[in-house]
Write a structure and sequence with these properties.
Rossmann fold; Arc Repressor Mutant, subunit A; 3 domains; five-stranded parallel β-sheet; four-stranded parallel β-sheet
Length: 379
């Protein structure tokens, strides 16, 4: 009931590392109640003269593909102009005349026709998802498909084609680079290490590799990996995207269909399933990332209070000493008064003071319902 009222991601904070389509992903997450931290882990720059693009162009001229997918007008024009500059322009155009040429939208169609070519098909929606559906519907097993990249044409697009049995050649008209402003990435790394986010999403392998590389540069890679390994969910759009994380021993979750919508659906299933739910003082308490559901009431909780609550929830019904609780408060020093202050704020945030009992001269405990004592090991 509470998920329908507040959204399945209410109380959770999700990091978004995408450079392209980040707004779309962020909107999907926010509509389901999530808080979003956007930190593009890369930027996309156009290649002017690049050996990788030259190599891909020669490869296609030597072994002509069955299908070429053109994704952007500027990228397609840049590709043809670069090939012309290398003396391979006519060979490339001859190659493209003999293939099934798909154009993502009207601007791309214009660029194709300006080059003296004719597209075989273009989706009315200008959606790469529709292009993918068409290709998979036709069947791609054993077919050679060239995809002119524009950063991230569609999360999982290439992965889906390869999963369908296609031989995919990517044409990198753009290159991924670290973002010019590294501050958002640094904040996301700090938040992940501090467990202030509940999940981090990745829609491309370069974004995942970039985040890990930045953490290593800052000397935080071990802490970041520990957070992703134990507490913060790494959600990837597909298996290729997950490779840099899996190489570091990080388990990831992925949707069966490599798209943004299914990626969000995975988060909507995984994060609530990780939340700790306890019967406390006649209430149902569900502990989420930055908020607690008390019955169906979503109660935001400050970070210090959440640290205390999670410490109490690790041993529900047991007394946890002030000294032990103090150790969960970052920067609190040795003053146990900090525990009392944070506890008072926590009780206020929860809106039900009787959820947490003070045990004189000993500490605090969650008021676990007596019927639950055996199940949760309380005394």
């Amino acid at each position: 009931m509470h998920d329908r009222q507040h959204g399945p991601l209410a109380g959770f904070t999700i990091g978004v590392t995408a450079a392209r389509r980040a707004d779309e992903l962020g909107t999907l997450l926010q509509r389901r109640g999530g808080a979003v931290v956007h930190a593009p882990a890369l930027r996309i720059v156009q290649l002017a003269d690049d050996a990788e693009l030259l190599s891909a162009t020669k490869e296609l001229i030597d072994l002509v593909p069955d299908v070429v997918v053109a994704t952007t007008a500027i990228g397609f024009r840049g590709w043809v102009e670069a090939a012309d500059g290398w003396g391979h322009g006519e060979e490339l155009l001859a190659c493209l005349r003999g293939v099934e040429l798909l154009a993502r939208g009207p601007k791309v169609k214009g660029a194709i026709r300006a080059a003296g070519l004719v597209e075989a098909w273009s989706p009315s929606s200008e959606s790469m998802a529709e292009v993918l559906d068409r290709l998979l519907g036709e069947g791609v097993e054993g077919r050679r498909v060239a995809v002119q990249l524009h950063g991230e044409p569609l999360p999982g697009f290439v992965e889906s084609l390869r999963a369908g049995g296609a031989d995919v050649v990517v044409v990198p008209v753009y290159r991924w680079m670290p973002p010019e402003d590294l501050a958002p990435v640094d904040r996301l790394i700090d938040a992940t290490v501090a467990r202030a986010v509940d999940a981090v999403t990745f829609t491309s392998a370069p974004a995942a590799a970039s985040l890990l590389s930045r953490a290593e540069t800052r000397g935080q890679l071990p802490e970041l990996l520990a957070a992703l390994h134990h507490d913060v969910l790494a959600a990837c759009v597909g298996p290729v995207t997950a490779l840099p994380l899996q190489a570091q021993g990080i388990d990831t979750v992925q949707p069966e269909r490599f798209r943004l919508g299914p990626l969000v659906q995975v988060l909507c299933a995984e994060l609530p399933a990780r939340a700790r739910t306890l019967p406390v003082a006649g209430h149902r308490m569900e502990i989420r990332g930055h908020a607690v559901l008390v019955d169906d009431d979503l109660r935001p909780v400050p970070p210090a209070g959440m640290s205390l609550l999670k410490a109490l929830a690790r041993r529900p019904g047991w007394v946890v000493s002030r000294a032990e609780l103090l150790r969960t408060l970052p920067g609190a020093g040795r003053d146990e008064h900090a525990v009392e202050t944070a506890m008072a704020r926590l009780r206020t945030a929860l809106g039900a003071p009787k959820l947490i009992h003070t045990v004189v001269k000993r500490g605090y405990r969650l008021a676990l319902d007596p019927a639950a004592d055996t199940k949760y090991g309380a005394v």
